[in-house]
Design goal:
Layout (H helix, E strand, L loop, with lengths): L14 H25 L2 H27 L14 H26 L9 H22 L7 H30 L3 H13 L1 H15 L9 H9 L4 E13 L2 E10 L5 H16 L3 E8 L4
Parallel strand pairs: 2-3
Antiparallel strand pairs: 1-2
Helix pairs in contact: 1-2, 1-4, 2-3, 2-5, 2-6, 3-5, 3-6, 3-7, 4-5, 5-6, 5-7
GO molecular function, one term: zinc ion transmembrane transporter activity
InterPro entries: Cation_efflux, Cation_efflux_CTD, Cation_efflux_CTD_sf, Cation_efflux_TM, Cation_efflux_TMD_sf, CDF/SLC30A
Membrane topology: Multi-pass membrane protein
């Protein structure tokens, strides 16, 4: 295919930063799992599970970026840029499953709370907080450019709050001996990610169903088209997104007899691109039929 029609390119994303964040997160995930088992802390295991989804999100982000850079061809005319939406949706579903598991495990511990080593729990959770802050800093500048990177950032952000909760729980257990606090913190970690995960999942579903982007009103697009005095009307107006920041607009434009349809098309394309940052615009021009 001609280079002018390749839609497989995506905005440059920091692969090196993602790779560093993945290595840090995956390594410490193993530390937290082992530490949670040795200390008997459900909150620490919960935090480790979140770090597992963080690591998976970062890995999928790296895969999505590589896939998204593959050139478009006649079988994949838009390339592979939508792979990041599938990856982000998978991340959201995994995170929801982990949260439900933690809630179930916390319920089981109501009747039998095991001994918890609060000092070891505190040390591991503090180290986890540091790792989360480093990973967040690495992802911060690119989280608005890709749903997949945004998903990874949200998971690291949620895990950062989880680490704070685990630290607080460890201190309380150390000072008071209230072991039930560990399960309460674990439940808190499970619940705090539901709203943000749902928002991410809803955005992914909207894109996969080719819904109108949430930040653009299709009525505004139609009004923009109809504001041109040489246009008699428009129909079959469709607006959807390939990825979070890659929009597509198609429409049938009815122009008045005697008007220059090429001039109209170029003017509309330039205005809509400038106002709404839509790159992929296709107008089918139809002359108004005489009455």
């Amino acid at each position: 295919m001609s280079e002018k029609h390749e839609h497989g390119n995506i905005k440059s994303l920091p692969e090196s930063r993602l790779l560093i964040a993945f290595a840090l997160t995956f390594s410490f995930m193993l530390v937290e799992f082992i530490g949670g088992y040795l200390t008997g802390s459900l909150a620490l295991i919960s935090d480790a599970m979140h770090m597992m989804t963080d690591a998976f999100a970062l890995l999928l982000a790296l895969i999505a970026i590589r896939a998204g850079k593959k050139a478009a061809d006649y079988l994949k005319t838009y390339g592979y840029i939508r792979f990041e939406i599938l990856a982000a949706m998978m991340n959201a579903l995994i995170l929801l499953a982990v949260a439900f598991y933690v809630l179930y495990e916390a319920y089981r511990r109501i009747s039998a709370t095991p001994d918890i080593q609060s000092v070891g729990m505190l040390i591991i959770a503090t180290a986890g907080l540091i790792i989360n802050l480093i990973a967040m800093q690495l992802l911060k500048n690119s989280k608005e450019e890709s749903l997949n990177v945004k998903g990874a950032y949200l998971e690291v952000w949620a895990d950062m709050l989880g680490s704070v909760g685990v630290i607080a729980g460890a201190v309380i257990i150390w000072l008071t001996g209230w072991l039930i606090v560990d399960s309460v913190i674990a439940v808190f970690i499970g619940f705090m990610v539901f709203p943000r995960t749902w928002i991410l999942l809803k955005s992914c579903i909207n894109i996969l169903l080719q819904g109108t982007p949430e930040n653009i009103s299709i009525n505004d697009i139609i009004n923009e088209i109809n504001s041109n005095e040489d246009i008699a009307g428009a129909h079959n107006v469709h607006l959807w997104a390939l990825t979070q920041s890659n929009y597509v607009l198609t429409a049938h434009i009815i122009y008045k007899a005697g008007a220059d349809h090429n001039k109209i098309r170029k003017s509309l394309t330039d205005i809509i691109h400038e106002k709404y940052d839509i790159d992929n615009i296709t107008f089918q021009m139809e002359q108004e039929k005489p009455e």
